[in-house]
Amino acid sequence: MIAAAFGAGPNARKGTTVNLYLAIPVLLMASLIAASGIAAITRGWVLPWNRRTVRRPRLHGIGQSVIAVSLCWHLAFGLLRDGSNASEWGVLTGSALLVAGALVMLASTRGEAPAR
User: Residue 64, Cα to own-chain centre: how many angstroms?
Assistant: First the structure.
């Protein structure tokens, strides 16, 4: 059953969009982004190349966690091929989560209002 979902084995359908060679790197990337987000939420630690621009590390971590969830959401619904509209709605929801996470990360880089 898992082999068929990843596009391998005798029951695999041709034309599936998510294969094993795509699923493993996406899961690895999502887990690394989630780990970085959890570190930012709990410890306030941000990756070295983002330290100058990030003003609120906890908000940045929440955005990273939302992006990691959206990548897993995309992967789960990309594997779903049952002929219903659930796959399309799932991918659309994952895209909305991805944009929301990016906007939260953008909000974490904005500085406070200057004092007058």
Answer: 8
Q: Name the packing angle between helices 20-43 and 57-79 (round to 10°).
A: 160
pLDDT of residue 34 exceeding 90, the answer is yes
DSSP for 58-112, written as a single string? HHHHHHHHHHHHHHHHHHHHHH--SSSTHHHHHHHHHHHHHHHHHHHHHHHHPPP
> What is the model's pTM?
0.76
Q: What are phi and psi of 18, to 5 degrees?
A: -110, 120
Q: How far apart are CA 113 and CA 98, in angstroms?
A: 27
The residue written with tokens 């005798």 in the block is 10
